[in-house]
Specification:
Distance between the termini: 34 Å
Radius of gyration: 15 Å
Strand content: under 5%
Helix content: over 70%
Shape: flat
Largest sheet: none
Length: 48
């Protein structure tokens, strides 16, 4: 991945979070963080 592509993806991610905050009060970002936490817990369960 080139630096340019990484910067574009980063800018899109930040833009999406800002739009979510402005339009939904951050509900979608919070939902995704909760699901990520569940995924991390699930994966760590299988490590033991």
């Amino acid at each position: 991945m080139t630096d340019r592509i990484a910067l574009i993806i980063g800018a899109l991610a930040i833009g999406a979070l800002l739009l979510d905050q402005a339009l939904n009060g951050g509900a979608a970002g919070f939902f995704l963080l909760r699901k990520l936490a569940e995924l991390i817990y699930f994966v760590s369960f299988w490590r033991h």
